[in-house]
Amino acid sequence: MIRRLIFTAALALPLCAPAQSGEEVPFITTPDNVTLAMLQLAGVGPQDHVIDLGSGDGRIVITAARRFGARGLGVEIVPDLVARSRAAAARAGVADRTEFREQDLFKTDLGAATVVTMYLLPEVNLQLRPALLQLKPGTRIVSHDWDLGDWAPDETLTVDAPDKTIGLEKKSRLHRWVVPARADGLWCGAAGTQLRISQQYQGVQASWQRGSRQWALQGRLDGADLRLLGATATLQARVDGERLHIAAPAVDAMTLARAGGERCPGA
Q1: How many CB atoms lie within 10 A of CB 136?
Q2: CB contact set of 239 (below 8 Å; sequence gap of 6+)
Q3: What is the largest CA-CA distance in the chain?
Q4: pLDDT tens digit string along 182-233?
C-alpha cells in the first residue's frame, strides 16, 4: 500500500519491499539538525500550528513545541510510533501543546495548519498537492528531500547531514513553499479599470488597463501578497477572497472585484 511507503521526520526510506497494512516497516531517523533546519526554514513561532504528515516518533512536532513555542499535530499510521510520540512529548513537557493521531494522512483535515511538514515519497507528495494548494494563503510547507513536481519551491536549502544513514551524499535538501492565494481571472475596478491575471502556482502574468492605457506585467504571489512589475508600471496588491486591494505605487490605492465572467460589469 502506498501509504506505508511514507517518509517522515523520523520515518525515512523503508529498507524493505512495500509492506501491507499491519506489517512493521523499518525506519531511519532524520538527524536532529535537519529537523531543526526544517522548522527554521518555515519560520515557526509561538503563533503557529504545525501539522507533520507521517510524524514517526514525533520529533518535528515536539521540537516545534519545545524550541519554538508552537502547537502541533503529528499524523502517523503506525500505532507503536504514535504511542512513542505521546510518551516523548510528555517527557519533553509539551504534551499540552501537542497531539498525535493514528490516522491516514490523506484523511487528515489540514485546515488548522499554518505550517505543514513532511518527508514523503514523491508520488505521495503529488497526491497531496491539490489539498495543499487549497490551504489558507500564506501557509508554509516544508518538505525534506522531495519536491512537489512542477510547483517550484519558493526556497531550497541544502543542509549538511553527516549522521544521515541513507544515501552516499550526507546532505539533505529542504524545500519551502508558501501557499499562494487564487488570483487568476478578471478583476474590475472603477472607471473601467481592469486587471486580467493568469496564474501558475505563485507565478503571475497580467494585463492592466486603466482608461486608454494598458500595461503588461509579470510577478509572483507571496501568500496573499501580489507584486507585479512592468516596463513602466509597478503594482503591489493583496488578495482578499473576491477583492484585490491595490496599494500603489503606480496607481492610486483602489479595490478591484473579481468578475463573474469574461467582461467587467458595464464594460
Answers
A1: 14
A2: 137, 181, 182, 183, 221, 224, 225, 226
A3: 68
A4: 999 999 998 889 999 999 999 999 999 888 888 899 999 999 999 999 888 7
Query: Which residue, of 178, 199, 227, is where some domain finishes?
Result: 178
The pLDDT of residue 212 is 83
Residue 264: inside a domain:
no
Q: Read off the pTM.
A: 0.87
For residue 134, the enclosing domain spans: 2-178
Same domain assignment for residues 39 and 114: yes
Q: How far apart are CA 87 and CA 74, in angstroms?
A: 13
Rounded Cα distance between 55 and 104, Å, is: 11
